[in-house]
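Hey,

The postdoc asked me to send both predictions to you directly instead of through the lab channel. I've kept everything plain text so nothing gets mangled by the mail client. Protein one:
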Amino acid sequence: MKRNKPSLQDMILAGLRLAITDGYENITRDQIAEELGCAPSLIPYKMGSMADLRRHIIAYAIALDCKPVVAQGLVRLHPLCMELSKERKQEALKPFGL
């Protein structure tokens, strides 16, 4: 079976999609690898630790205004999310009644 060699951006976007459905703190290297059709060992090789990957995912969520993932970051007091304006925080949390 031929394995894909996804880019760093591919990995982050796959992680972002998984964070929406499975939860930001619940994503794993194996899930991302399966989503991308690559070897799980490629994820830390390109991304570093899962903490590094999660930081990238939160940064992308903020840049793309992905409210479900930004809301997860706010609930977990992620530093990048905590730096957002009061308005952006409220918009991200609004669908959840928070």
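Protein two:
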Amino acid sequence: MVMAVVDDRVTVMAITTKGEDVPANALPIPVDVARAMGLRDDARSSLLPNELNRFHWVGHDLRARGRDGSFHFGRCPPGFFKTALVAIGPHAVPTPRG
């Protein structure tokens, strides 16, 4: 999930959508939020606040969605976005990539 944009660099937080074992600090994504974000609502999706990456847009590991070439999946409701920002905490430093 994109957390910040500065010029052509973005900071993203990892999302897991397969319900696999997640760290204790993972932030579960409620079903209604997952639906709004364009994620499968039948999966146990979580944000991983300790897994931030910063890179030049568009990164080599991003895939366009659909035929229109868009990278947009959906919109994160503002209240949950704020929860995600708080979960990062003041000590987080994104890993520079690219």
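Summary for protein two, as requested: The mean pLDDT is 79.

Thanks,
C.
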